[in-house]
Design goal:
By secondary structure, the chain is of the alpha+beta class. The protein has two domains: 11-97; 103-226, Immunoglobulin-like (Sandwich). Helix content is 31%, strand content 34%. It is built from three helices and twelve strands. Helix 1 (11-18) runs antiparallel to helix 2 and helix 2 packs antiparallel against helix 3 (56-97). It is elongated, with a radius of gyration of 33 Å. The N and C termini lie far apart (79 Å).
Length: 227
């Protein structure tokens, strides 16, 4: 039989030697240490001297130490996660603030015509040999068809000169557009992007959002290109 005396082989001493810096250990390391501690404690209790057994107060004290260390580790992990979240949020806010006064492309099919010029974009998942644009007024009437020809994959910018299909200049204002793309006669999905100037940034429960032109609550993640 192995004698485990209280003054030389206490579970608390073993745990301290295994985990000298609990506050800086990772959650996985703490979990492993906790498991080893419990195994050592059980082994110690099984092999203790029946004439000089560990008393309940000692076992309770050691379990309390383990609980305290585990709780501190969990608290440190939570605080670290909170700190990382705040840092990420601050970085996103700073990044978004730098966009104020700049033009961006975000998903949408609106186009504002101002001083005879309107800007928009598309996002293509692959190259196409044909990309056509159709522009409509507020009533939904077709105003202009534009052929952009072959385009590479990625974000594509395009510009409207403010004229209709007859060549006449139309009034400034808000219009909408749609697009169709094809490669070797096969239809290709295309995402419409609307252009706008970033005028303000808001930090809310859902993260950082932008005001882009006349559109509010545009998530930072929706920005496809900064112009």
């Amino acid at each position: 039989m192995v004698n485990a005396t209280q003054d030389t082989s206490s579970a608390a001493s073993i745990y301290a030697s295994l985990n000298p810096s609990s506050s800086s250990s990772s959650a996985s390391a703490a979990a492993g240490t906790q498991d080893r501690f419990l195994k050592l404690l059980v082994t110690q209790m099984k092999n203790q001297d029946p004439l000089n057994p560990m008393d309940n107060a000692q076992v309770t004290s050691q379990m309390a130490q383990l609980s305290t260390v585990t709780g501190i580790d969990k608290l440190n992990t939570t605080l670290q996660a909170l700190s990382d979240s705040m840092t990420s949020s601050s970085n996103q806010t700073l990044q978004a603030t730098n966009m104020i006064g700049h033009g961006v492309m975000v998903p949408g099919s609106g186009i504002d015509l101002s001083k005879g010029a309107g800007y928009g974009g598309f996002e293509l998942g692959q190259s196409v040999d044909k990309l056509d644009v159709a522009i409509y007024d507020k009533a939904g009437a077709l105003v202009r068809n534009i052929s952009l020809g072959a385009q590479s994959s990625g974000v594509v910018n395009w510009q409207w000169d403010g004229r209709d299909n007859s060549g006449a200049v139309v009034k400034d204002g808000s219009y909408t557009f749609s697009a169709s793309a094809a490669q070797a006669g096969n239809k290709v999905d295309v995402t419409a992007l609307q252009f706008g100037m970033v005028s303000s940034v808001t930090q809310g429960k859902q993260g950082v959002s932008l005001t882009v032109g006349q559109w509010d609550n545009i998530a930072l993640s929706q920005v496809r290109r900064i112009v």
